[in-house]
Design a protein that fits this description.
The structure is a homodimer of 143-residue chains. Chain A is mainly alpha-helical. Chain A has helices at residues 11-30, 36-47, 53-60, 64-76, 98-107, 110-119, 125-142, and strands at residues 51-52, 80-84, 92-96. A three-stranded antiparallel β-sheet of chain A has the order 1-3-2. The structure holds a DNA duplex (30 and 30 nucleotides).
DNA sequence: TTTAATTATATCGCTTACGATATAATTTCT
DNA sequence: AGAAATTATATCGTAAGCGATATAATTAAA
């Protein structure tokens, strides 16, 4: 059954690379005391502080049952605060704490460090950039 | 900080697409009573039955602490059997059961069904095939 | 041939990830 | 206004995924 060979699947490389990337980030994030999904939440909030749970979930394409406990752990780490919106009490506003804001400075170099490491393995920035655009296009189509 | 925008990350689209693919497979696999990682294990065993835990882990780029409980659950589902190798008692041989073998027939159409669905969203097989090759190349480089 | 190192797998603890379901606040409908 | 529907978030249960560590079998070294 040729169509069932692992080698012929498009799904597997995405699954594998996703995990390999998380592994590659891990040592860099460990020194900050955060995980990869927590880093993604920070990326969203650094770009625009003060977003609702749903806004963050939408951007990361995650469900609230994933993001709620994640945000609670980040609250424990004192990276974010969560409080009900005054206008609409169903909404929970998530804000960066001072600590969460400051972490941006330390994190700023991480993406570049990883790109440099990949360049050493003959994976160039232009290739990654092209790939990124292609993938973002597909995500928009299938989301 | 331009380099920290979610939009500019290459890591995020991989993370997102990987989960979107798992979600896309889910309804197809649900009727078989298996999960996406379990499906990947079956792909590996359908290709070559009777492999050790490590051989399967290597092919899926997973650690034994992920694959061992996964295989145990598949044993519960009576999809595979696990028994110590006679030559080397440290090794555990994983074999498909009759049920695990038979499932290949029902699963054979799934990849094609998903490709057809993607074609409807303007994602063509040639593009995916090219992407697959590119990604497999990268995996080999960074693994 | 004991001892030490290596190999193969498993266990533990914690963090995602998500389907199903619950709860409370807000809107919409009648 | 009061009931019904919708929206926003949370809770529960289960399955990954992985670092750290443990255990047993095999191999290498002294």
């Amino acid at each position: 059954m040729e169509q069932l060979k692992l080698e012929n699947q498009i799904c597997f490389p995405f699954y594998a690379i996703s995990r390999l990337i998380t592994r590659a980030y891990q040592p860099h994030l460990e020194s900050l005391g955060i995980t990869y999904p927590q880093f993604l939440v920070l990326l969203v909030l650094w770009e625009k502080d003060g977003q609702t749970v749903n806004q963050i979930a939408d951007k990361l394409i995650l469900n609230t049952n994933t993001i709620t406990p994640l945000l609670k752990r980040m609250e424990q780490l004192e990276l974010v605060s969560r409080e009900k919106s005054k206008e609409d009490e169903r909404k929970v506003m998530v804000n960066l704490t001072r600590k969460g804001q400051k972490m941006q400075v330390e994190a700023a170099c991480i993406p570049d460090e990883l790109l440099t490491k990949l360049a050493g393995k003959d994976i160039q920035r232009e290739d990654l950039s092209e790939m990124k655009n292609q993938l973002n296009h597909w995500i928009a189509l299938i989301k």
